[in-house]
Amino acid sequence: MPVGYRIGIELASINQTYLIILSFIIGCVVVLAEPAVHVLNQQVESITNGEVTRRQMMIALSIGVGLSIGLSIIRIIYDFSLLYYLIPGYLLSLGMSFYVPKLYTAIAFDSGGVASGPLTSSFILPMAIGACVALKGETEVLSLAFGIVAMVAMTPLITIQMLGFRAVVSQRSRSKAAMRRILAADDEQIIYFK
Question: Cβ neighbours of residue 37 under 8 Å, at least 6 residues apart?
């Protein structure tokens, strides 16, 4: 926790654009160190029979957590309510759940809980507190630095369901291509049976 806090203070002392970019990168990398994520990825690959690979899950989770940390730092810099992220984000994730297979929705909600594990609360949260103290002062910590765990739990819902949406779209395009090949066959050809 002291290391995360110190990193947050040091990152906030540089350019704010670099702070956002580095926070995104740190968020992407933190997922790699989360032990429960590796277990989840292995189970998902097994349950889906390789349709969703470990690599796809890891990329989706990394991007999701990286986005949540980067967006949280933007919120700290520009001082606005967390609800501007959470309400549209959860509406989007709930809306997507009607269009993706139920398996992806279940995986997405599990991954949201797994991604917001012990490393997030013991490293990322103190990092955000440090950045908030350096940028806005100690009085703003309670209103700006918290909510990161909620963001980390939300963004994987969206990124994993996007995997499901991509699977639905690719399945539909494959079936349309197969139907075109069937219909494009020369039906006027005479077949002789011997």
Answer: 31, 58, 61, 111, 114, 115, 117
